[in-house]
């Protein structure tokens, strides 16, 4: 989950398995696989949503979407929230003491990359509905 690969402890035994890879290497690593038949996508953010839909659209692949979350939460792209991406606000967040910085990051967690946009959520919902 997130921009940097992180393998949870429960999956430590799979860390060096070439079939397990982070979304940041998705297309490159998928191309190295023998024609995959079944794939699990783990996550509930923008990348996981996009990868799930890409795989769902490929012939002969069964794809599962696994997440800790009960439901997808749409990204917040409102003007006030998007201020976190302004250079001066980035400096403000970075220069805060660790505890305050963590609180700010938690406050803005629903921006951009940690949550998919509503259109993707609706597409995934349609896929699940059709599967039923």
Written account of the structure:
The chain has 132 residues and is mainly alpha-helical. It folds into two domains: 1-73 and 115-132, no CATH class; 76-109, no CATH class. The protein has helices spanning 26-32, 46-56, 79-82, 87-94, 98-107, 118-131, and strands at 38-42, 62-66. It has a two-stranded parallel ribbon with strand order 1-2. The longest helix has 14 residues, at 118-131. The protein is globular.
List keywords for this structure.
globular; two-stranded parallel sheet; mainly alpha
Task: Compute the number of helices.
Answer: 6
Order of helices and strands: HEHEHHHH
Q: Oligomerization state of this entry?
A: single chain
- Strand content range: 5-15%
Total number of domains: 2
**What's the end-to-end separation, in Å?**
28 Å
């Amino acid at each position: 989950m997130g921009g940097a690969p992180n393998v949870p402890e429960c999956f430590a035994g799979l860390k060096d398995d070439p079939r397990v890879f982070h979304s940041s290497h998705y297309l490159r690593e998928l191309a190295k696989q023998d024609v995959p038949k079944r794939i699990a996508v783990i996550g509930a953010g923008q990348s996981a949503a996009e990868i799930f839909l890409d795989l769902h659209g490929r012939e002969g692949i069964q794809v599962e979407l696994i997440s800790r979350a009960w439901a997808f939460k749409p990204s917040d792209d409102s003007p006030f929230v998007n201020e976190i991406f302004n250079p001066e606000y980035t400096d403000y967040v970075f220069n805060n003491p660790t505890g305050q910085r963590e609180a700010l990051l938690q406050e803005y967690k629903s921006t951009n990359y940690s949550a998919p946009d509503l259109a993707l959520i609706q597409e995934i919902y349609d896929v699940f509905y059709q599967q039923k």
